[in-house]
Amino acid sequence: MIPIDGQPVLTAEQMRTAEQRLFDNGLAPTKLMQRAGEAVARSVARLAAGRAVLVLCGPGNNGGDGYVVAATFQRLGLPVRVAATGAPRTDSAVWARGLWNGPVESLDATEPAPVLIDALFGIGLTRALDASVQAGLSRLAAAATLRIAVDLPSGVGSDDGHLFGDTPRFDVTLALGALKPAHLLQPSASIMGAVRLLDIGVPANGRSRVLIRPTLPEPDATSHKYSRGMVAIVAGSMSGASELAATAAARAGAGYVLHLSDAPQQAGAHPHAIVRRAFQADTLMDDRIGAIVIGPGLGRDEGARAKLGAALGSGRPLVIDGDALRLVDAEALRTHIGPKILTPHGGEFTHLFGDKGGAKTDATRRAAKRTGAVVVHKGADTVIAAPNGRTILCPEANSWLSTAGTGDVLAGAIGAMLAAGLEPLAAAEAGVWLHGQAARRCGRAFIADDLADALSAVRG
Question: How far, in Å, CA of 112 to CA of 126, rounded?
Fold first, then answer.
């Protein structure tokens, strides 16, 4: 099994194309099915630890994988039964069925087993399961103590993470050859359990991949506060949000953080290392500023619009978050000549770009191309996309991040990475990674202040 960090993510069509290239180069489809089934069998044998296994086989190639799993278990003398929805319908699945020397029970009538393997339907599903199949799968899953899905749980849209019905939760999902968007997108990601990638010899290449631990900028003997990155935070009517962003930028590694507000003198303001000044538009023209963060607590009045206009006109690299996303025009963003990163949550994304429709990955790529910005489409399944189509999918986020201010912390962390000289996609990925690791360190029931402070520990 392969760690999923940094691995390519392929749509159903891309996966079929990758497989077809192997077939065109002389690999028999049955050989690939054998590789897949045997890889699943090896993984399940370790997890099952001698417990009886029931393999559910559908009519297509996912079912064929299931027959290979069962035949491998049978050859090893391990306890296994097979139940199916009907006869196999593809040539490879018919071949695999011939490997199984045992009865094939009806899905409706079969008895449960401690370990359930779902090999009913894999990638490319576009509709709900038949009611009888759904009922059988749910019944058997509820009775099992270990539930394992082959490639994808049945009833999941592989490209968009849609659940077509009441799909049961699994303990482990064994991705074959490459990850699919549904392994990382919600709501399907929440039912996958532990996603493990099995190498079956399919070369997987694409413009989408999973978030990976980045190489973070580090100071050296020649570094000074400006070379490490100067971040300007434009504050508004809710100073707490911009203070969180400023603290996060400092804790993430920025050398100089400038908090610009209409009321800069705050008694006892913390951290004291943050420089607080009155907002003036020409301050944003300072060439030493490596990134401007605007939006956290900005407000939506005319004063906020004027500050946003000054930021857009500065030519400085921008992180646009929160209220600024409610004020900015998507088309106008293309006129900003500097690098820019947008960090909308779902509601802000819809406000700015309209009904996102389709897969979150596709919607985010369209938004990035339309604006010329890197877009960090936040949520439990954050998607990061660049204007050139490169896309990063993030593993399921810590649910305790669902508290006020955590998005402001993310904006500040990304601002620090952008100011340090990372190109926008790399800065966005680094900020999201830092944010997720800080949440992991915080544990449970943390607040955004804790999250901002934890960024230093992640850097350490």
Answer: 27
Contact indicator for 396, 382 with CB cutoff of 8 Å = no
pLDDT beneath 50, residues of the chain: none
17-56 residues labelled b (16+ CB within 10 A) or e (exposed): ebbeebeeeeeebbebbbbbbbbbbebbbebbeeeebbbb
Q: In degrees rounded to 5, what are phi and psi of residue 60?
A: -105, -155
Considering only CA atoms, which of 192, 150, 195, 203 is closest in space to residue 21?
203
Closest CA to 104 of 89, 86, 78: 86
C-alpha 218, offset from chain centre: 26
Predicted confidence at residue 267, as pLDDT, reads 54
Region of 90 (left: φ > 0; alpha: ψ -120 to 50; beta: rest) is beta
The residues, any chain, with a CB within 8 Å of residue 92's CB and separated by 6 or more, are: 29, 30, 33, 61, 64
- What is the pTM for the complete model shown? 0.96
The H or E element containing residue 388 is none
Residue 60 CA to residue 85 CA, distance in Å, equals 10
